[in-house]
Sialidase domain-containing protein (Cymbomonas tetramitiformis), 475 residues
Amino acid sequence: MSSKKCENRVVRDTGQDRIVYALVAYMVASITLLLVVLLSIPYLKGPAHSRLRPLTVDRPSSPPIAESVEQGRDGPQDILQLLPDTEFDKSAEVTGCPFPGNVRAKCMDAADGKLYAQGLSGSTGPYSALMQDVVTGRESSNHGSNLLEIPNGTLLLTWFSGPFEGESGVAIVLSRLDPGSQRWTRPVEISVEVGRSAQNPVLFYDNKNSALMLLHTSQLAKKGQATAEVRQLKSLDMGATWQPHTVPFHDPGAFVRNSLLHSQDGESVLLPMYYTPDGFAKFRTHYSTLRRTSDGGATWTETHMTQKGEWLAQPSVVRLANDTLVAFFRDRRGEYIYRSTSEDDGLTWSPARRTRLPSNNSGLQAVLLASGWIALVFNNVAGGSAGPRFPLSLALSQDAGVSWPYVRDIEIADGTDVLHLGRRQEWSYPSIVQNRQGLLQISYTFRRDTIKHVVVTQEWVEGGTTVGNYKPREV
């Protein structure tokens, strides 16, 4: 009798245990499913392009890339600079926020100076970054950037930042991307004066004098461009410290904007300039010149590139392999980019003729590539003297700027109607350099909220299209 009861109890206990085990298994499966869903949410909120991650570098003891490429003469280079063309996703775009999406409210969260991979795989080029502000959380207006690669491979980026263009206290700031780093440093102010507005900085490394030069415009606050003068700073330690500024150009409305270059013999430095003697709105009185110094900026001579009445400003000058100089001009009428040439190292210039590329009366910049082609960054739109500043596009020419068979957009309108602080949709005032590894480094104004930096290749440009006014197929 007792033996039978014992058997029944064992059977009942076994059944209860099975029920408990089933409940526990169900709960474990439910929790696991919930965790999977929660972890997947970021990947369900947008397309592959928005699921980007920062460029990271593993440092194993024997990195394959370090074994297969030649190291720079000043030590190992940034791994980003060593990526071959095959590491660039030619179908990927760089427009909009680098990470994590293109919602304006969140876009500035990505203004951390980091380079993010834009390739659809999330780990390949092209790359882009948004610059940090001088002070975290400060509402600054940022504009007019300029890039330079210095001899040790570091990239320098300068622009003007402050309350707004033309107001008191607008400063020239400087950030750097050192070899081996994937984050731009927080910018520091290097030139600022209460009661004046600093603008349009340009950087140049003077090989003859082993000095880093920075020139920028400075105008009286809220008094207009006719009060502008050009200030010059010099650094002997690659931008770590700067000597007090001098004022080489007091002429009314003196302005700089685009990069300097060495003379044909390497003994002088050439500086493209333009003037607004009666203020910004008096376009008919604007003109362009080329300044020249052979003593490190102590004295300068001047040659006129255009005259008053031609409505041309902000020349960007490149030197071809045969030493011909080619200049591209901003058209104050907002119709076409103009082109001029010099066969005597800038002493005389041909009459400026319009190209097929449109102008919106905004900034542009050109550079000669190692391939012998010219790359030019501009707003591919015509719109009168106050035209829209998008799209921002990159064009390529293999015949010194006569024709442009390739154009690809870098930024297009993002559909934002109401902008923070009332700022307009603006992607403008570009700067472009090709570094020693052959990558195209481009910076530009990103809605005046910050400065954006993108890294592309010539092949990337050739693989894209444009929504702008000029279409290469129409040539």
Observations:
- The longest helix spans residues 2-44.
- The first strand starts at residue 116 and ends at 117.
- DSSP finds five helices and 26 strands in the chain.
- Confidence is low (pLDDT under 50) at residues 1-15, 36-77, 417-422.
